[in-house]
From TrEMBL:
All residue ranges annotated as the D-isomer specific 2-hydroxyacid dehydrogenase NAD-binding domain in the record: 115-292
Presence of the UniProt keyword Ribosomal protein in the record: no
Cellular component, GO, one term: cytosol
Cited InterPro entries: D-isomer_2-hydroxyacid_DH, D-isomer_2_OHA_DH_cat_dom, D-isomer_DH_NAD-bd, NAD(P)-bd_dom_sf
Official protein name in the record: D-isomer specific 2-hydroxyacid dehydrogenase, catalytic domain
Superkingdom classification of source: Bacteria
Domain D-isomer specific 2-hydroxyacid dehydrogenase catalytic: 32-317
Gene source species: Falsiroseomonas stagni DSM 19981
Length: 325
């Protein structure tokens, strides 16, 4: 019996590609670059090979137009991500195509990235690295690149899901006080003493460092806008490893330029890989290229989770464990 045809839209870790090649007639992308930015090439290749499944990634344009152009052979789209902003789930549902993601396996790595950016912003590590690399450092000085400590600061976590809770656990090691803003208050055993704020203004006014972990979508687009930034204490720090579209870039550039926001650290961007030009003129911001889950352990776990979902539908004829409604 022929193996189901699986289209992998991006280059994945070796172990994941080897497993895919073992169990499927796998059609691979040998490059780290996407085939296209509009999704047309994905649909064309799926039709050309008669794909039964597609393993895509965050950033792949799997919107309604792409999904509507897929051949009827496609039974499942497994995304190598937790987020599904790049996918039209309603369009897939209308075609009877299962969509599955990879929840739970990247929480620690993403929280680790947020914590890295918190430290970089607070201790001006990006500025220091650039100074040394430019061969402009002339030696130690008592007032050179003085930042602030995180010890004793109030960390505000916007979106207190798995990633936010992992970050809270790390921050407690720095003796930070944890505050969070969420659609609903979580159970006491998950709070671990964190302080819940139902009101965004109360939340933002209480904290020294903001870490963004709220979901994407139109309801949260530019959630951190000029008004909300004005609610924050002068000299606050902003970090975003969640969704790029939840931050109003122009407003953040203005707040950083004025000094109202002391520093920021970003790993995600609205419309990435495009980045707001205003950020490049600023010294008080650390910019990472979407490294949130970029550890060997996590990326392999994500790949195996995606293949588990594909196996359920294409090899066993069962429901994908991470199928989205």
């Amino acid at each position: 019996m022929p193996k189901p045809i699986l289209l992998l839209t991006r280059k994945l870790p070796d172990a994941i590609e080897a497993r895919a090649a073992r169990d499927y007639d796998a059609r691979l992308n040998s490059s780290d670059d996407p085939w296209s930015r509009d999704g047309a090439e994905i649909a064309r290749r799926a039709a050309e090979c008669g794909a039964a499944g597609i393993l895509c990634a965050a950033g792949d344009p799997m919107g309604a137009a792409t999904i509507e152009a897929l051949p009827p052979s496609v039974k499942i789209i497994a995304t190598f991500s937790v987020g599904t902003d790049h996918l039209s789930i309603p369009a897939a549902a209308a075609r009877g195509i299962t969509v599955a993601n990879t929840p739970g396996v990247l929480s620690f790595a993403t929280a680790e990235c947020a914590f890295t950016l918190m430290l970089m912003a607070a201790r001006r590590a990006g500025e220091g690295e650039r100074l040394v690399r430019a061969r402009a450092w002339t030696g130690w000085a008592p007032t050179q690149l003085m930042g602030v400590t995180l010890e004793g600061k109030k960390l505000g976590i916007a979106g207190y899901g798995r990633i936010g809770q992992e970050l809270a656990a790390m921050a407690r090691g720095m003796r930070m006080e944890i505050h969070y803003h969420n659609r609903n208050r979580v159970a006491p055993e998950l709070e671990q003493g964190a302080i819940f704020h139902a009101d965004a203004k109360d939340f933002l006014g209480a904290i020294d460092v903001l870490s963004m972990h709220i979901p994407g979508g139109e309801a949260t687009r530019k959630w951190l806008n000029a008004e909300r930034l004005s609610w924050m204490k002068p000299g606050s720090i902003v970090v975003n490893t969640g969704r790029g579209g939840t931050v109003d870039d122009a407003a953040l550039v203005t707040a950083l330029s004025s000094g109202h926001i002391r520093a920021a650290g970003l790993d995600v961007y609205d419309g990435e890989p495009a980045i707001h030009e205003g950020y490049f003129a600023l010294e008080n911001i650390a910019l990472l290229p979407h490294l949130g889950s970029a550890t060997e352990e996590t990326r392999n776990a994500m790949g195996h989770r995606a293949l588990d979902n594909l196996d359920a539908v294409l090899l066993r004829g069962t429901v994908a464990p991470d199928a989205l409604p």
